[in-house]
Write a structure and sequence with these properties.
Blueprint lengths: L11 E7 L2 E10 L13 E11 L4 E11 L8 H25 L12 H18 L6 H9 L3 H6 L3
Antiparallel strand pairs: 1-2, 2-3, 3-4
Length: 159
Amino acid sequence: MAWTRGFFPPPYETRDKAHGRIEIRRIWVSSDLPESITFPYANQVLTIERVTTDLRGKELRHEVVYGITSGSATAESPADLLQYNRGHWEIENGLHWVRDVTFDEDRSQVRTGAGPRMMATLRNLAISLHRLYGGAKNIAAAIRHCAKNANRPMALIGL
């Protein structure tokens, strides 16, 4: 197939340097769908390749993912699709990672009735308050800071 990576240069590529490594992201997109794709509302198929190296060029990770989107080729460019994919991971790292690691949510013993949903809501509220009003980049540090004085959490909610 013409959209398969390796045969043609990608229509869009990004390079980022951060945290002692370089990450290259490439995307190949096609709206010329094969008959074998019968996914409802499928308009485009895509291949994303992520290559992560250290600053000296040693490969640390190489990933290839495939996707199907309902977005039309005229409305969503390869750059847009790559940004959407990247944005998904920002949400995953910014919220779910904090809930999993900082709040140790997976080991919660609240499992019945509305309890799990209520606890998830309270955790999301705490994270949002610290980020919006407390300016916290590190939620764990912000929680420890608030735990030292009962007035600090109240100040976050305006009391």
